[in-house]
């Protein structure tokens, strides 16, 4: 049976109920529309199992989607260090459950209010509503930022400060269409390139050590 993210059940129940009511009232077009939306909600909130790669020094993608940015930056808010930023754009057709890039302990989580610019634009990382999670790892501190987009207007972080996460472990979700930025140590060998399609918890995006 397909596993679903718990955040999806309210949407699925509402549209399934709408389908039933429309069926009872004889509204053929409403039945079709609400049924299609119900099926899409089930598809969107799917949460498949992933084969987490084993080995030392591996960083896995925290999100499904397409690589839209890889660059060297100085992250001054949380890490205060030169790091590599990798950004992943998630379309409405990607799995939207987010996973930890590596083992670590959560040092802090910050929810930032903001706008809802299209998530594929670079400015969305800082101007849009987002949740930033700082992860303490054996390779140094890392930052993962869940960014809400024009369609996706809510990010959910299920974890809390002080929690320990394992590589590939589920920790949150962004609804409908969005972006995720991950900041990894400067001396990491990046294993992806612009345009690559990645899977959360499964695709190795970098190797260190």
Descriptive overview:
The protein is α+β, with helices and mostly antiparallel strands and about 210 residues long. It folds into 2 domains: about 5-45; about 60-205, Glucose Permease (Domain IIA) (Distorted Sandwich), CATH 2.70.70. Helices cover about 20% and strands about 40% of the residues. The chain has 3 helices and 14 strands. It has helices spanning about 10-25, 30-45, 125; strands at about 60, 65-75, 80-90, 95-100, 105-110, 130-135, 140-150, 155, 165, 170-175, 180-185, 190, 195-200, 205. The strands form 3 sheets. Strands 9-5-6-7-11-3-2-13 form an 8-stranded antiparallel beta sheet. Helix 1 (about 10-25) runs antiparallel to helix 2 (about 30-45). The chain is elongated.
Q: Major sheet: size, sense and barrel closure?
A: 8 strands, antiparallel
**What structural class do the secondary elements suggest?**
alpha+beta
CATH homologous superfamily (4th level) name of the largest domain: Glucose Permease (Domain IIA)
- Please tell me the CATH architecture of the largest domain by its name: Distorted Sandwich
Number of domains: 2
Radius of gyration: 18 Å
Order of helices and strands: HHEEEEEHEEEEEEEEE
Give average pLDDT, whole number: 91
* Intertermini distance: 39 Å
Find the CATH topology of the largest domain: Glucose Permease (Domain IIA)
State the share of residues found in helices, binned by percent. Answer: 10-25%
Number of H- or I-type helical stretches: 3
- The shape, in one word, is elongated
Strand order of the largest sheet: 9-5-6-7-11-3-2-13
Text of the CATH class of the largest domain: Mainly Beta
Number of strands: 14
Approximate strand percentage: 35-45%
pLDDT < 50 stretches: none
